[in-house]
């Protein structure tokens, strides 16, 4: 969700005829398998894609005990959109009921079909959410911190950044998908509100080595870019002011690379 709230495609695409970016970020519990599934779905539907961007917070790298790679949500994405057996997931009556409930949920004329009030949705109705995603090309603002979580708890310890091999394994899988569609993979780390630590510096060194061995994968920014907390709603998510700054930063990087 760091990318969901950070990159506004309207800013990236503005006055740039050669750019047509769409924000398809969702949430961390999609898992890295889920990222791969979503990439497959989008690239299949895209005409001549040039760049596939994995946008993530430094706090969203996979670790053995957190940020699971395989999740139930990833399995559901694969089952419902990619599996050869997806049409057999429901008996006919169940498929009809699912289509009906989906239609009622997403396209109901009612404005009061409430969504959950946590994280990104903030109690918007289903129609409001659909309208915002359409108008803002996938970007959603994040303005209010979660009440059940400290917004800036500090840099995690316990060897959180000592598993770069797990991260690189997932990056290579995603790169294979991008190359299958003729796209270049960019790995973009969102800014965060903390300074470097010994652990994050070591992780950057691992990235430098990986990048030398895999020059087709582009890392436009360093692992750690420190911005003032004024640009954040919490340690992972940028507020709208930060999103504007991040969108301009990404736009400049893309135009420079071209």
Structure, explained:
It contains nine helices and two strands. The model is unreliable at 108-120 (pLDDT under 50). It has helices at residues 2-6, 9-13, 31-45, 72-82, 92-107, 126-135, 164-180, 198-213, 240-257, and strands at residues 51-56, 184-189. The longest helix has 18 residues, at 240-257. The chain has a two-stranded parallel ribbon with strand order 1-2. 25% of the residues are buried. 44% of the residues lie in helices and 5% in strands. The chain has 258 residues and is mostly helical.
Main attributes?
258 residues, mainly alpha, two-stranded parallel ribbon, 9 helices, 5% strand
How many E-type strands?
Answer: 2
Helix/strand order, N-terminal first: HHHEHHHHEHH
Strand order of the largest sheet: 1-2
Class of secondary structure makeup: mainly alpha
N- and C-termini, Cα separation: 27 Å
Number of helices: 9
Portion of residues in beta strands equals under 5%
Largest sheet: 2 strands, parallel
Share of helical residues: 40-55%
The rough form would be described as: globular
Mean pLDDT: 83
Write the layout of secondary structure elements.
Blueprint lengths: L1 H5 L2 H5 L17 H15 L5 E6 L15 H11 L9 H16 L18 H10 L28 H17 L3 E6 L8 H16 L26 H18 L1
Parallel strand pairs: 1-2
Helix pairs in contact: 3-4, 3-7
Q: Can I get a quick summary?
A:
With 258 residues, the chain is mainly alpha-helical. 44% of the residues lie in helices and 5% in strands. The chain has a two-stranded parallel sheet with strand order 1-2.
């Amino acid at each position: 969700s760091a990318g969901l709230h950070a990159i506004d495609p309207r800013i990236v695409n503005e006055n740039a005829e050669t750019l047509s970016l769409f924000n398809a970020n969702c949430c961390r519990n999609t898992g890295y398998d889920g990222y791969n599934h979503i990439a497959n779905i989008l690239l299949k539907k895209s005409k001549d894609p040039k760049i596939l961007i994995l946008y993530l917070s430094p706090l969203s790298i996979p670790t053995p005990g957190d940020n699971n790679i395989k999740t139930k949500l990833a399995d559901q994405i694969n089952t419902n959109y990619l599996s050869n057996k997806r049409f057999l997931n429901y008996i006919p009556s169940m498929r009809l009921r699912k289509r009906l409930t989906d239609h009622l949920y997403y396209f109901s004329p009612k404005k009061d079909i409430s969504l959950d009030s946590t994280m990104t949705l903030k109690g918007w109705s289903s129609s409001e959410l659909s309208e915002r995603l359409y108008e803002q090309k996938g970007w959603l603002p994040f303005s209010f911190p979660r009440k059940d979580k400290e917004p800036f708890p500090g840099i995690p310890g316990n060897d959180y950044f000592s598993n770069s091999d797990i991260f690189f394994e997932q990056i290579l899988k995603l790169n294979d998908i991008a190359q299958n569609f003729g796209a270049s993979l960019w790995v973009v780390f969102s800014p965060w509100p903390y300074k470097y630590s010994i652990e994050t510096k070591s992780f950057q060194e691992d990235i430098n080595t990986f990048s030398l061995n895999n020059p087709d994968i582009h890392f436009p920014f360093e692992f750690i870019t420190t911005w003032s907390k004024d640009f954040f709603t919490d340690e992972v998510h940028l507020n709208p002011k930060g999103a504007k700054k991040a969108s301009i930063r990404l736009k400049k990087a893309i135009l420079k690379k071209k």
